[in-house]
Amino acid sequence: MHRFQLPSHMPARPLVLTFGALAVLAAAACGNPFAVTANTDVIFDTLAVYGLTQAPTNGPTALNTFGPQLVTTSPTTHYDIVFDIRPDSAGNLQAYALPPKAVASFGNAGFVVDSTHAFDAIASAPNVPYNDSTIVPLKPGTVVIVQAQSSACTVQLVASQQFIYSKIVIDSINYTPFDEFTNPAGNTIYFRIVVDPNCGFRSFKEGRPTF
User: What is the average pLDDT across 75-103?
Assistant: First the structure.
């Protein structure tokens, strides 16, 4: 049996550097255990909901941004935004977006209103505090960016990766009263939404996000 041995004329330093380089490559191959990979394209959709106050029975009045999916405002559903149409302090009908904490004691979602940029120009959700308790008045053109904690992301180890981000723009509001037969489209809010359903990603660009 022959035992491997460095020749006496060969210095040991190059071998040490080689093993060090291999260790670095191995670590890189393992990757960052806290990194998250996007596996779903950004979603674009157009939706309509009823205002909560005068909504028909079982009519959708809220939105679960993961999907996105329209739902009723009830303790048995998960929602990130509740929509309402009701009189303001002057008695005029006004549309609103409400975070979950403004309606019930559960849910974890917050809003940022962007009154500076055009909806299509907003390429990503800003890294700023999101207000989880303030009711937002709505009108055509209002842009709301939503940070919502998703049940699909609760397995993530890093807190910031437990959220998904969406942007919404209000297209129109129908303030006429709902009537099942004569005006089924009354008391409704129409909007467009772009959702990045990947945990922790903020991109609103078409396709598979990288950030």
Answer: 96
Four-residue CA torsion sign, 175, 176, 177, 179: negative
More confident of the two residues 203 and 25: 203
In which order are the strands placed within the sheet that holds 69-71?
Answer: 69-71, 62-64, 81-87, 93-98, 136-138
Query: Which 8-state DSSP code applies to residue 203?
Result: B
Q: What pTM did the predictor assign?
A: 0.83
- 68 preceded by a cis bond (ω within 30 of 0): yes
Helix (H) or strand (E) holding 184: none
Residue recorded with tokens 């390429």: 123
| CA–CA distance, 73 with 174 (Å, rounded to integer) | 20
What does the domain layout of the chain look like in residue ranges?
Answer: 43-196
Non-local CB neighbours of 105 within 8 Å, separated by 6+ positions: none
CA distance 188 to 179: 12
- Integer Cα distance of 43 and 46 in angstroms: 10
**DSSP E strands, 73-158:** 81-87, 93-98, 109-113, 136-138, 143-149
Q: For the chain, what's the residue count?
A: 211
Distance CA 153, CA 175 (A): 37
